[in-house]
Amino acid sequence: MSTSKKILMIVSNPAVSPVTHWPIGFWWAELSHAYEVFAEAGYDIRIASPDGGKLEADGYSDPEDESGYSVQDTISLAFKNDPNKMQLISDTPALSDITASDYDALFVVGGQGPMVTMIDNERVHSFVADFYESGKVTAAVCHGTCILLKTRLSNGDLLVKGKRWTGFANSEEEYAENAIGKKIQPFWIETEARKLADMQFDVAGALEEHAIRDGNLVTGQQQVSAAAAAREVIAVLS
Description:
Helix content is 29%, strand content 15%. By secondary structure, it is an alpha/beta fold. The strands form three sheets. Strands 4-1-5-6-10-9 form a six-stranded mixed beta sheet, sandwiched between helices. A two-stranded antiparallel sheet has the order 2-3. A hairpin with a 6-residue loop joins strand 2 (15-16) and strand 3 (23-24). The relative contact order is 0.17. The model has no long low-confidence stretch (mean pLDDT 97).
């Protein structure tokens, strides 16, 4: 029987952006960089999605995308070139088929997808809230942190009430829109977070590594922070 820690990574199903009309999904670095940190720690990792099935990444996050936007992401390229790892995202289990008690921590991966597929997904919110209330480490990175704008505990409070946390910054939304030349997201996480009472939303500079651990809640600002967030999860579990 394995005694290693078990990590559940929750990744967005593919969707279409209501803003750009592009196909959207997860951001490669947020999956692969965190995955490698957990794997190096000897953890067992399972990748699931809200609805199950094959997952697709945001094009700009693909190191082989013709845009060249993520061409320097050699960690994601190595993941893509490993058939065993790619099998993990070719047919994911749905959250309804996951037994939460089997896992020591969960890690919600970002990308453009969660802003559409998870922001109002009560099944995801409920799963995350129940996991957190069971006393286990609960993490989210980049646009995956959008769920924390609406995830409520059994007493009706937001999970982030009284917490310090982070997520994709307005400065980074501006950077991305300027790089692409158009509006990308239906809303900005930092803008919405600052409307909430009784919590502290902190960001670092644009595309600076920034991860926050507050008790059993771990958040990472963006793709540059995925590995740092994974290391914070390990710190809690250790």
